[in-house]
Write a structure and sequence with these properties.
Blueprint (H helix, E strand, L loop, with lengths): L7 E9 L2 E6 L2 E9 L2 H11 L3 E6 H6 L5 H10 L3 E5 L5 H9 L4 E4 L1 H5 L1 H10 L4 E8 L2 E4 L4 E6 H11 L3 E6 L15 H5 L3 E5 L5 H17 L5 E7 L1 H4 L5 H23 L2
Parallel strand pairs: 1-4, 1-12, 4-5, 5-6, 6-7, 7-10, 10-11, 11-12
Antiparallel strand pairs: 1-2, 2-3, 7-8, 8-9
């Protein structure tokens, strides 16, 4: 396990009308504004030591095109780490504008689910920079800003991503997002089993949730033999409501993951 990338804690920045907000369960009417200017959120997370941010254009996800491009530019100007950006990217031009505005990675959700050919072309055009944004509710994939359920299960979708050459998936349990009721890390398993890297999102409420997620993720990696990785956990409301600090979250994840890997390796020794 030497040289292993740590289990990351990634703050979420969801944008609505240029502001950093949080939703509960994907319900747009539940939006609570935390920063009027999303760029201020980026400055805050920069100061807190974040290495990466997960940025979502909520307005864009509903409209089907990027709405908060200027907010992305403001975030980029105030944050030096990695940015992945999604919400409303449905064509090559939209992806290009997101990269031009400062995104390191573009997250494809609805476009990936409804037009695999487009997604495959984008992967070839931007190798290593396209991430699958997989939103699940009751085990089914959701599209169009979490408003449309599709008859597509996680296992089938993971296989499709493998074929398309998409190496990383952000997997959100929509029913738990913003609810602070625990993380469904098990939803990553179909993707790790296919040899993909995966990031969990939705439901983190306590440091114990983070410890449990990190332990479960480490165990899944050791069970499956195709090289799949659980890269980390996207955390939103719990950080915004100051249930714990980013530093505390990172320490909890790191220590729990190391402990779980150590125990698992002990069990493998003759």
């Amino acid at each position: 396990m030497e040289g292993r990338v740590p289990f990351e804690i990634i703050p979420a920045v969801d944008i609505m009308a240029g502001s950093a907000v949080r939703l509960v369960g994907g319900d747009y009417s539940s939006a609570k504004v935390y920063w009027k200017d999303a760029g201020d959120a980026a400055s805050y997370w920069q100061d807190q030591g974040a290495a990466r941010l997960h940025v979502v254009d909520l307005d864009g996800a509903l409209k089907g095109e990027t709405v908060n491009g200027r907010a992305l530019e403001a975030i980029r100007s105030r944050f030096s780490g990695l940015l992945d950006f999604g919400g409303g990217i449905r064509d090559v031009e939209g992806a290009g504008r997101a990269f031009d505005a400062g995104a390191d990675f573009v997250d494809l959700g609805t476009a990936l689910l409804k037009d695999a050919g487009f997604a495959g072309g984008l992967v070839k055009g931007y190798p290593g920079r396209i991430i699958a944004s997989v939103d699940l509710k009751g085990g089914r994939a959701m599209a169009e800003g979490w408003t449309e359920g599709l008859d597509l299960r996680a296992e089938a979708l993971a296989g499709t991503l493998k074929v398309l050459g998409i190496g990383t998936a952000i997997v959100t349990d929509v029913s738990k997002d913003g609810g602070l009721k625990g993380v469904s890390v098990g939803i990553l398993e179909p993707f790790i089993a296919q040899g993909l890297c995966a990031i969990a999102s939705g439901g983190t409420g306590t440091l114990d949730d983070i410890r449990k997620a990190a332990r479960k993720a480490a165990s899944m990696e050791l069970i499956h033999e195709k090289g799949g990785r659980a890269l980390g956990l996207i955390v939103g409301k719990a950080l915004y409501e100051k249930a714990f600090s980013l530093g505390e979250a990172k320490e909890a994840a790191s220590s729990a993951a190391a402990e779980a890997r150590g125990r698992s390796l002990e069990g493998l020794r003759p």
